[in-house]
Amino acid sequence: MQKNILVMIQSMTGYGKATATFGDKKINVEIKSLNSKAMDLSTRIAPLYREKEIEIRNMISRTLERGKVDFSLWVEKDASETATPINAALIENYYLQIKAISETTRIPMPEDWFATLLRMPDVLTRAEVQELSEEEWKVVRQVTEEAIAHLVEFRKQEGAALEKKFNEKVDNIERLLKSIEPYETERVAKIRERITDALEKTISVDYDKNRLEQELIYYIEKLDINEEKQRLANHLNYFRETMAGGHGQGKKLGFIAQEMGREINTTGSKSNHAEMQNIVVQMKDELEQIKEQVLNVM
């Protein structure tokens, strides 16, 4: 069982979140991914950690490989710690200066002292040095790796669901392909009968039966679908083998699905039989569901 988990396909859809504490900070990392042909990464990183953005991007790209990825890294603090401090000493100094100027110039004193003083320069200041320590970066790196790991696990779970769906659809196409066989012999007899009746009843002329037989053989050979059936069966097996190859097979599975579609379409154009064409329509429906979901495979 463990071996199957290691080699399973992965979805490009995923979500991961992790948190850690450092001093009075709560460090949060959230990462989401959707399907994309290449790595399309957007980041929102708290100012203190932006110096590590390239390293963070490399960590994500190296592990996730492909997808439209949104990464967020932010910090929460206690409200008492985040409030902007008021410089009381500076307020007192401004008060004394304004009072002295008022007495000297006889300009009236402000009616609302407090509002006036709070608007003075540098009264509201944040004495905070934005410097990232090695210890804090170690915590940020660890919580980032944890969030990525959670997303990968999510992708594996989604991949397992996709694999189950693909196997079901491939089995259905294989079953439908086998159900065509009984109609093939019947189809040849019907074609022969239809052409012969047309000659005898509609045209009402004598004809060379040997020549007709040769023309019928040539015509029926052109409608033969044995090669298409064999190639489609091979593609179905190859699809299963490729899924067993693990993650990173999404594009390859898409190519195989296209080849499967070609063989199904050719079978439909050659079938010339109502029941066979109905079966082909059902195969197309099953394949279309594969094509839609294969876009989500890594």
Description:
- A hairpin with a 2-residue loop joins strand 1 and strand 2.
- The model is unreliable at 1-6 (pLDDT under 50).
- A four-stranded mixed β-sheet has the order 1-2-4-3.
- The radius of gyration is 36 Å and the shape is rod-shaped.
- The two termini are 21 Å apart.
- Among the domains are: 85-118, no CATH class; 159-294, no CATH class.
- It has helices at 2-7, 53-64, 79-82, 88-105, 113-118, 134-179, 181-203, 209-222, 226-243, 250-271, 274-294, and strands at 14-22, 25-34, 39-45, 67-77.
- It is built from eleven helices and four strands, in the order αβββαβααααααααα.
- It is 64% helix and 12% strand.
- It has 298 residues and is an alpha+beta fold.
Features of this protein?
single chain, about 300 residues, alpha+beta, 4-stranded mixed sheet, 4 strands, about 65% helix, about 10% strand
Can I get a quick summary?
The chain has 298 residues and is α+β, with helices and mostly antiparallel strands. Helices cover 64% and strands 12% of the residues. Among the domains are: 85-118, no CATH class; 159-294, no CATH class.
